[in-house]
Amino acid sequence: MNALFNQIQSAWQWLSAAAHWQGPDGIPTRLLEHLEYSAFALFFAILVALPLGLFVGHSGRGGFIVASLANSLRALPTLGLVVLAAVLSTGDPTVPVLIPVALLAVAPILVNTYEGIRQVDPDLRDAAAGMGMNPWQVLLRAEIPVALPLILLGLRTAAIQVVATATVAAYAGLGGLGRYAIDGLAVSDYPQVVGGAVIVVLLAVVVQLLFVALRRLVLSPGLRNSHDRS
Amino acid sequence: MSGGEPLIRWDWIGSHAGYLAGLAGRHLYLSLIPVVFGLIVSVPLGIACTRWRWVYPPVLTSANVLYSIPSLALFLLFIPYTGLFSDLTLIIPLTLYTLSVLVPNVVDGLRQVSAPVSQAATAMGFGRLRQLLQVELPIAVPVVIAGVRIATVSSISLVSVGQLIGNGGLGVLFTDGQQRIFPTEVIVGIALTVVLAFAADAVLVTVQRLLTPWARTGRAAA
Amino acid sequence: MSRLITFDGVTKRYPDGTVALDDVSLECATGEITVFVGTSGGGKTTALRTINRMVEPTSGRVLIDGRSVLGSKPAELRRGVGYVIQQAGLFPHRTIVDNIATVPRLLGWDKKKARARSYELMERVGLDPAMGTRYPYQLSGGQQQRVGVARALAADPPIMLMDEPFSAVDPVVRAELQGEFLRLQSELHKTIVFVTHDIDEAIKLGDRIAVFQTGGRLVQVDTPEKLLAHPADEFVSGFVGRDRGIRRLSFVPAAELPLRSDVVLPETASVADARATGEPWVLAVDGTRRPLGWARAEDLPDSGALAGLRLTDPGRTFQVGADSVRTVLDAVILSPSGLAIGVDSGGGVVGVTGHRELADTITAT
Ligand SMILES: Nc1ncnc2c1ncn2[C@@H]1O[C@H](COP(=O)(O)OP(=O)(O)O)[C@@H](O)[C@H]1O
Ligand SMILES: [Mg+2]
User: Fold this and answer.
1) What is the pLDDT of residues A68-122, one digit of tens each?
2) Domain A6-229 belongs to what architecture?
3) C83 CA to centre of ligand 2 in angstroms
4) Does C20 contact ligand 1 (Cβ within 6 A)?
5) Chain B within 8 Å of A3 (Cβ-Cβ)?
6) Inter-chain CB proximity A223 and C93 less than 8 Å
7) Do the Cβ atoms of B222 and A150 come within 8 Å?
8) Fewest CB within 10 angstroms: A29, A39, A184, C259, which?
9) Whose CA is nearest to atom 18 of ligand 1?
10) Could you tell me which chains touch chain C, where touching means 3 or more CB pairs under 8 A?
């Protein structure tokens, strides 16, 4: 208990020091960097994974490949990919390092989108087409809305993953909230390490809450009590 | 990367085989122990969640929040209690991560037993405990193993992050490769991690086949 | 506004080699209910789905009012053809009102008009408009099926395709839905193709019945009555069942039965009058000729009027102008006297009929 108290106290001191809230190494700057990296990586992950998942789920072709691909992506070590990107890049490592960050977010979006669309009741598809929806309308008005709980789950998992991976990316020379951990460890400045970790945890919780709110906002009440665990 | 240097130097791999095998062994130890601990905790916890319905929502929320905490941050927060280079600093957080996958799967698995099956078992004179051991748990096995597969693969890929606090199995190949700007080491580290993950997954699939001859494959959970 | 559907030598062979329709030719008449019935896998669903191009025939043509369905784009064709399936296929993410408004919205109606139409249809199919803002999971199976029917009717299509729409609900609800379906059709006069595997449902609903046999062969198309009277072959007679003779009686009007009134006496009649009929049972009626009950000759006291006696409940009656011989047969079997009581539309006794009259009539038809 004593250790916990000390930890809270030292982290609080670090967090509340005015000096840590300004300048290029200040919390606002680092937070903004972190958000930029995350948004950038998530955007590209969505750009790749969402259409692919929709296509495979809708057409029913390539499901096995999607599952295997997602499994393989899950097995890849974050730190290894980030370091590899940094080691192989010449010049500014930011963009190269963000590639694996995005890559790791592809799997949850892809798998959940694919599963969500695939699980849509065939009777529902049949009814939609039978009422005169063209294939696009079937996808947009029937399949996607019904698959939305799983698609959102995939996006949430990906967002959380991106925030975490972006923390590790600091090791490869990027900015962001991970810097406090890497720099703090290098000089054994534990208040900084713990303070930085606390901010990362808070950010993760905020992301989580954002998705809870998003779900409330966009999900039809007709689906609220359906199949997922969030 | 220095000019003229090949992407992979095979001779380095050959000369370090023993070292790499040692790292792989340690990597497996660090990643599998949390899965075992996770199972030991999540099975009774999952049973409790199905017996007393009110237990599940708070447990599920905690699991979700835990899962969302970046691994590096969680490792760092444990340093003051377990020490910088201690295995526990890795094992405890990794165990917590496995719970976020395993507990929901155990609950889903146990809930798979349909009301008619459960009523039939009761009608045949199965007591509460016997029903749990002989009906509900066996039926839950495929779903639980699907969760164990995910937890294992995630655990194996996460361990190397621990290298940032000085203890990460194969992760040392990444930090070392970074400092020496030596891609071979990094690539070998990635490849070995993936190989370990796939091998562990294959073992688990086999285990599941043996344990549940009545079900062909486990549900692939997302 | 109704349409004629023609199958002209339609064959469907699925890519795996299954022949689901084998040279089917058939007309589904304007404003009538044509029922496709037959064993599972007989090609009924496939045949139905060739009409709205959910299935394209391998050869042969499907025509609506003489024009091939291939002439219109599938989506446009389908917006003009109502479609109801077994599990209703409602959109779980849309309210009941929005589910029903689907096709009008696809046709470009504005939201207000489409919703107003939805509420109108909810009443038509017997749904409380208060349910309009609910979601499908909040409805019972029978209610969902009503929504399915309302949704198919929303844009007032001249043709309705219904694939086992009532088979997923329990028998009581099914009977209710069937009854309302017939009432609705008597107002709307759509050209309806209705698929079922249940011969009783086919007989109850169909103006004409098309019987499909495994392999996609159409074996007989006839009115229910003719189908029961003259099955084309062993398959059809096997399919319509062993008791088809009794089912057939559903189509013989009770008015064809001779009625006796010698055993019908006013309650004021005396015991002696009752004995004088020489019959084992007499029926007492009140001043407005409503049946009061049966009196058995054996049990009659020595004197008095019928009014003072304890009578046996008259049991089930039949309406002479409306019921079928099958109802009469049922009433005869259940009656203590072995006689069924025929009443007019006001409930007054017209006469009674028994085994002998039934036997004569059945032999004559
Ligand atoms: N998409 C399909 N691909 C292959 N065979 C099919 C397909 N749809 C139906 N069939 C086969 O065609 C036959 C007729 O099916 P169907 O029209 O559904 O029969 P019914 O509705 O009378 O039960 C069955 O043998 C069925 O298995
Ligand atoms: Mg069918």
Assistant:
1) 888 888 899 999 999 999 999 888 889 999 999 999 899 999 999 999 999 999 9
2) Orthogonal Bundle (1.10)
3) 14
4) yes
5) yes
6) yes
7) yes
8) A39
9) C45
10) A
Closest chain C residue to the Cα of A144, Cα to Cα: C93
pLDDT tens figures, C330-364: 888 888 888 999 999 888 999 999 888 888 888 87
Q: Domain segments of chain A: what residues?
A: 6-229
**Would you kindly state where each structural domain of chain C is located, as residue ranges?**
5-251, 254-364
The answer to whether residues B138 and B166 touch, using CB atoms and an 8 Å cutoff, is: no
Quick: pLDDT tens for A167-215. Answer: 999 998 888 999 999 999 889 888 898 899 999 999 999 999 999 999 9
pLDDT greater than 70 at residue B4: no
Q: What percent of chain C has pLDDT over 70?
A: 99
Which chains have 3+ CB pairs within 8 A of A? B, C
Q: Which residues contact C171 (CB under 8 A, 6 or more apart)?
A: none
Q: Is the CB of C40 under 6 A from ligand 1?
A: yes
Instruction: Select from A126, A133, A145 the Cβ nearest to the Cβ of C85.
Output: A126
A167 at the B interface (CB within 8 A)?
Answer: yes
Residue C44 Cβ inside 6 Å of ligand 1? The answer reads yes
DSSP summary character for residue B52: S
Average pLDDT over residues B32-40: 96
Delineate the domains of chain B, giving CATH numbers in brackets. Answer: 28-208 (1.10.3720.10)
> How is residue C272 written in tokens?
């002696």
What ipTM does this complex have?
0.84
Residues 6 or more apart whose Cβ sits within 8 Å of residue C325: C249, C250, C252, C253, C254, C256, C257, C358, C361, C362
Q: Give the fold, CATH level 3, of C5-251.
A: Rossmann fold (3.40.50)
CA–CA separation, C106 and C102 (whole Å): 6
- Helix, strand, coil % over all residues of chain B, rounded to 5: 80, 0, 20
